[in-house]
Every structure is written in C-alpha cells, then in structure tokens.
Amino acid sequence: MRLAPVKWIESERFEVCFFTDSRTLKEMIVATGIGAFPRSVSLLPLPHNNFGSPHSISNPRNRIRFPERKSSNFNFIFSLFIPTNPPFFSIKAAGASSSSEFVSDYAEEPATNVKFPTLLNLPGCSSSLSLIGTGFREKVFAIIGVKVYAAGLYINPKIIDKLDAWKGRTSAQIQDDSSLFDLIYQAPLEKSLQIVLVRDVDGKTFWDALNDAISPRIKSPNAIDETALSDFRDIFQNRPLKKGTFIFLTWLDSSKILIHLSNEGIPSTSEATIESENVTRSLFDVFFGRDPVSPSLKASISNGLASLLI
C-alpha cells in the first residue's frame, strides 16, 4: 500500500492532511479505519504550486498558516479536513479509541436534527452498543409529509465479526439483500432501536400504527404471540407521548425484546419484556425488512455497514 501524506497538522478543533492524489487519500482513509467520508469532510483540490488553508477557521487561536511551497511533481493537492467531532459511524467507538480514530460523541439525523450518542449503555445489555445509522419516520396526511420520529440503530460491536462474508459489498447491495439484516437479527447479541419523537403523539395512536405494521407479518399468531402483543399494547395505551420522548426497542436475542421509555434521557430500567419469536422477528422486519417503514434509516445503516465491512 502506498501512503504518501505530504503534511499532517493537528489542532484542538480539526486535523488536516494533504495528499498528492485522490488514490493515496482513499488508501489513507482505509488504513486509519475511517472507512467512509463523513458529511463534514471536505475534499478540495488546491493549486499545485502552494500549500494553503482552503477555509479560514472561525476560532483565531486554532487558525493555522501554511508556508508557500513550490512544486511541479503533481497537478493537484487534496486536503482532508476532519473536525474533532465528525458525525459518522464507527464500530470502533465501542472499544478504546486510539488517536488515529475520528469518532464523534453524537451523530445528527439531518432531516430532524435529532442527535444520537454514538455509544449507548442500556439496562439489560451486556456491553455498550454502537450506532451504525439513523433515519426518520414520516406519515403523509392529505399529501403532506409529517415527520413523526427520528430513529437510530445500535448493535453490539461483536456482530460485525459475524459478517465477514459481506466484506467488500456496496451499500446498495447491502440494502437490496435482506439476508445481511437477517444475520444481524439472528446473532445472539443485543441490537437496540432508539426512537425519538419529534412531535406529540398519543400512545394509542403510536401503538395502532406499530401494530398495523407488525400484525400482517404474523400469518398465524399463537397464544404466545397474542399475549406478547397484548403486553406490548399495554405499554402505550392511555399514555401521552410528548415530543422528545425516547423509546428503545432492544432485541436481546431472536425471541426476547426489552422496551424502554423515557422523557429524560437514557432510562434506568425497562418497561417490559416481550417474549415471542414471531413478534420480535416481525418487529425487526418492520424496520429492516424489504419494505421498511423508514427507508432513510435502512439506507443509512446500509451505508454504515458498507463502510465497516471493508
């Protein structure tokens, strides 16, 4: 692998690296474990005869001046501006971070501006969970789309070790083939979907919409399924859900899910445990199957997985 960074400069707010060509830049991204461009990364061609900062930094004490240098060995220099807290997903966030990893504390879902922590510690989970994608749910009323909630999927980092067969796949390939999501579901490790309401919703209305998506996926519900759905419904009945409410749907394994609700940050206890393989599988399929209720969420997760499985 050819790595030839021309210049690397660090400050408290950003890190800058200059490269002689885009291929070297791509190699460096892979080598450092970044995996994919976050939205906040700028890849800019600069004139070949000098080094300079393509942007002025708003904070004067962090402004860096670059000396002019003459060169005729290459046509362009590419600059990679990586803020100290870039909004992208890295499974390495669950472990000890090294100085070469650029992992933010939060990632913002762009359509709703809801911020999700990149690491999550929930009651009932054996380890920290890592954020791998965000999206939003929209309902259409009289041809007008209304955003109801933002959502982010967290997984136990060990799940990635079980997906080696998918290395090198593009995000489009991952999104179009549900078998990878089936593997994630079947893995006996925790997965949690965090839902953040962006408007007030009646609890019954929220459950009715969720049930309308779950029930058709259970072709022949048995007594266990009926009990699980009843317990699920009771959590939301006669319960107003205010804007900003957190709802966590946490799959412990393929037949058990924990429900957490909170109006004030991460909950300290779970509301209920739902035990039914048909219900838990159908719920997972609602969000990550072939016809997800939030296409933006599945697309974001597919992008995150593609950047991790390199």
Number of helix segments?
Answer: 7
Largest sheet descriptor: 7 strands, antiparallel
Structural class: alpha+beta
Poorly predicted regions are 1-88, 92-103
User: What average pLDDT do the residues reach?
Assistant: 75
Describe the global form.
globular
Provide the β-strand percentage band: 25-35%
Strand order of the largest sheet: 7-8-9-10-13-14-15
Question: Which percent bin holds the helix content?
Answer: 10-25%
Radius of gyration: 22 Å
**What would you call the quaternary organization?**
single chain
Distance between the termini: 15 Å
Count of extended strands: 15
Give the SSE order as H and E letters: EEHEEEEEEEHHEEHHEEEEHH
Pfam family, one: Chalcone
Organism: Lactuca virosa
InterPro entries: Chalcone_isomerase (IPR016087), Chalcone_isomerase_3-sand (IPR016088), Chalcone_isomerase_bundle_sf (IPR016089), Chalcone_isomerase_sf (IPR036298)
Family: Belongs to the chalcone isomerase family.
Written account of the structure:
This protein is of the alpha+beta class and 310 residues long. Strands 7-8-9-10-13-14-15 form a seven-stranded antiparallel sheet. A four-stranded antiparallel sheet has the order 1-2-4-3, covered by helices on one side. The chain has a two-stranded antiparallel ribbon with strand order 5-6.
What's this model, at a glance?
This protein is of the alpha+beta class and 310 residues long. It is 25% helix and 29% strand.
Helix and strand topology:
Layout: E1 5-10, E2 14-19, H1 22-31, E3 42-46, E4 77-83, E5 106-109, E6 114-117, E7 119-120, E8 129-141, E9 144-155, H2 171-176, H3 179-186, E10 191-197, E11 201-202, H4 203-214, H5 223-236, E12 240-241, E13 246-253, E14 256-262, E15 272-275, H6 277-288, H7 295-308
Antiparallel strand pairs: 1-2, 2-4, 3-4, 5-6, 7-8, 8-9, 9-10, 10-13, 11-12, 13-14, 14-15
Helix pairs in contact: 4-5
GO molecular function: fatty acid binding; intramolecular lyase activity
Protein name: Chalcone-flavonone isomerase family protein
Family: Belongs to the chalcone isomerase family.
